[in-house]
Amino acid sequence: MTRRTSPFRPRRLVAAALCVGALGLSACSTSTAGDNTVAGQARDGADRAYVSGDGRIEQLTADQRGEPVELTGTTLDGAQWSSADHRGRIVVLNVWGSWCPPCVAEMPELQKAYSTLRAEKKPVEFMGVDVGETPENALAFLRRVGTTYPSLKDDGGAALIALQDKASTPPATLVLDKQGRIAARITGETTAPTVTGLVDDVLAEG
Question: For the chain, which has fewer Cβ within 10 Å, the N-terminal or C-terminal residue?
């Protein structure tokens, strides 16, 4: 994706989040040998050295965007959801897991952004994409931290493929334009001003 300078930069990163690799992206990693998959880490409750993105913000102009995202799934509450049903509105997608420290740290910020944009009656939808845990654990976590927007339950990785490999490492946040195309991506922990600023940028396109 093409990156352009954005004034909306996250204020901080969780101390345990490290930037590695040429693009500052990596999968969740452990400090010991074992199952290193997302699901495996979710099953393993031991402390581990978590590796995440660095909060990089990438934006695409309208003529640089690819095909619309075709994301479908079942929410933690059991409802069917499809991104195609929300054409004409901005959609904010956040890939997360309650086992992921930066995801936990940014959750109040995402809720704040959601509440702000909803209060302003802007045409924006939020949807979480939970990975690596049972729906019961994910729903209990969201209720405990006070997140009121819905999330899709883990589907074994199909959702991550539908996101065009742009959000494979949690936390990651995508902003879809009114045509359902990826207009912006945040790799790593984010803040409410970052999310609302990116949404406003896309809304300003008309």
Answer: C
- pLDDT (tens digit, 9 = 90+) per residue, 9-54? 333 332 223 232 323 333 333 222 344 333 333 333 323 343 445 6
**Burial annotation 37-65 (CB, 10 A radius, 16+ → b, else e):** ebeebbeeeeebebbbbbbbbbbbeeeeb
Distance CA 147, CA 167 (A): 21
Residue keyed to tokens 């999330």: 151
The 3-state DSSP class for residue 170 equals coil
The gap from C-alpha 20 to its chain's centroid, in whole angstroms, comes to 19
Q: What value, to the nearest 5°, has the Cα angle with vertex 84 and ends 81 and 86?
A: 80
- CA pair distance 47, 13, nearest whole angstrom: 18
- 102 prior amide bond cis, ω within 30: no
Return d(Cα 51, Cα 71) in angstroms, integer: 26
* Alpha-carbon gap, residue 189 to 53, rounded angstroms: 7
Per residue in 100-139, pLDDT (tens digit) is: 999 999 999 999 999 999 999 999 999 999 999 999 999 9
Cα 35–chain centre separation? 23
